[in-house]
Amino acid sequence: MAKLRDPNGGCPWDIKQDFDSIVPYTIEEAYEVADAIEQRDFDELRLELGDLLLQVVFHAQMAKEQSLFDFDDVVAGINEKLIRRHPHVFANQAFADEAAVTANWEAEKQKERAQKGSADSGLLDSVTLGLPALSRANKLQKKASKVGFDWPSPEPVFAKIKEELDEVAEELAASDINKTRLEAEIGDLLFAVVNLARHHHIDPEHALRVSNGSFQRRFGFIEQTLAAEGRSFADSNLAEMDALWREAKKHFNN
Fold first, then answer.
1. Which of 156, 161, 253 is nearest to 204 (CA)?
2. What residue spans define the domains of the chain?
3. Angle made by CA atoms 173, 177, 182, in degrees to the nearest 5
């Protein structure tokens, strides 16, 4: 990477990049790692992890050029953090149970925020804004639950979903639909569904990725069936496509 970034003989594309321009690639590579895992394609996972590692090296090299930090500092930092947050592993500190381990983890993170001068920030302020919305909702809820702000069981969460769905229906029934209010109500509905997933220990982001895959496979079945008959979507209608959709569900369990 140092050679690629070298102004004398390096790659023009790599040379002109900066932290901001590389961010989309970093995010994309992380998603491609997740996709390889979901597909259980471990040869591809090996390659994608290399691509993701390249992003770390790229950022570290740019930081080194600005005398901010280098790759060794990145590795040293994560090593130090892991040791500090796992005293039950590295310092023979005893905890009564997993809950106590988690409580210590959160206490250590609070100390880290204090050292950064952000101890007075809210509990939820540390949840990254850049996360996908479903993942961020899940993390916000987990954070709040650790201080007791949570439904006691999944049953009231399910009731909340019904309540939010009714509120969406009310907005849609209005003679003059207010898009801002409708958006807010749909957002509340999605947030409640995330809550239900969390209570059943299901990652909502992963659940939606699975559903996206199911939709793509079933829709592809419709497209391929029509093509095999020498037809396109324009030559079909909704009723026929719905029938093919039901047929696709028989072919694909998920």
1. 161
2. 205-251
3. 90
